[in-house]
Predict the 3D structure of the following.
Amino acid sequence: MATYLHADREPRIVADSTCLGPCDPAERIQVTVMLRRQQEAHLDALLTQLASGDALARPLSREAFAQHFSAHPDDIQKTEAFAHRHQLTVERVDPAQSVIVLSGTIAQFETAFGVTLERFEHRSIGQYRGRTGAIALPDDLHGVVTAVLGLDSRPQARPHFRLRPPFRPARGAAGVTFTPPQVAALYGFPAGDGAGQCIAIVELGGGYRAADIEQYFRGIGLATVPTLVDVDVGTGRNAPTGDPSGPDGEVALDVEIAGAIAPAAKIAVYFAPNGDAGFIQAVNTAVHDTTNRPSVISISWGGPEAIWQAQSAQAFERVLQAAAAVGVTVCAASGDSGSADGLQDGVSHVDFPASSPYVLACGGTQLDALPGQGIRRETVWNDTAEGGGAGGGGISTLYDLPVWQQGLEATLADGSRVPLAKRGVPDVAGDASPQTGYEVTVAGATTVMGGTSAVAPLWAALIARLNAAGGANAGWVNPVLYGHPAALRDITEGSNGTYAAATGWDACTGLGSPDGAQLAAILPQGAAR
């Protein structure tokens, strides 16, 4: 008999697509199978302790996590036997990541999992491979396999950066321009360079040319040029396109902000294909990377919760839980399309993975400041009246209210307030408006960028500095920050559509933008890794 892994609802992007017909049955693909962990109850107990702020709770080393929570050898053997019965090739087994990667033909995977794979086309993302039917598994794999990723190849996420229009050299553009170190100084980041730390950056397309990055760092006067390491995940590669408005823009923004603020840290860039399998495995690889050992992960990609299939979101959540358990901070952009998150259905949405409670969700502000003269005013980033973007934020439909957000309220644009019943997004904020954006170099040209994509590496670099100075990893910082809201600069002006800024936490800027001196006093509170 067969059991079914998930009866996933059909994501909106699939419903809006046109079926072009069956896939070539001889085409070879790779599929990622995720397995349950050993001692799940013990992991849940550790996460509960960390969430409560228990002073005795400490994250584990990567080695200890692998020892206690890896996939069980019997589960691995059963999955390999299933693969062999269906003539599928076992390409990779990683017990710590609880992952088995299989390869085979379309026809073999259709038979193995009882699904139909067809070609689809969507007006905004082009052609992709889609799955029809629930994933079937033999009874001996019921409860063993938690997700089967990669049968569907549709792009899962979009980058959250915005160019200051029009695209032209920064010195010819209107508005205020900051270098990343200038923004760090405005927010009072403590002195330091992130020495001994590694910042992981997840990219789902594009790439960089080393000469362009070095030119940028030399141009802003850095004495130390950061060390960059590329990590290929699956078929992902550092593959620059030369188009600054495409994924190359995201890569440059992430690397240059993180590297300029923490120049002595290693910057490890995890390149993966833009699908649920690639995205999840890029983060999974960074979390369990015992070579580069990142202490913080920056993610500037995401999509509305509504476009994620249940098995994919749940698989991603398990990876993010692992990050919290090993003391790795995960910073993710909250989105650049306001409270709708880019969907035109008249309903508010939040972006995932930023909406996960194990992620530090990074919203956007606009700065009224001059370098060396301090911040005069800071408001919610919202350029929609001028045809631009706005910081994402709102209330999750996927995640229950975390213990550290209990008792909070969301302020609506009309001034009314509603108690939070589910996870609220974002947690923190930072300069994101292209009108007060960051001067960066993309494909040899200098321009100004913004977006919440800038805020994730900004916070990641701050965490790296604090980790280096404190000799410990801050780890899962959300419970600590909500216990010390005065460590952030409260933003009380502006809205992102449905929601408005207000005193205290709000669904536009979270607890606020960073106050470096105050944050240095409360972080890190983890254990050195």
Summary: The two ends are 45 Å apart (CA to CA). The longest strand covers residues 360-370.
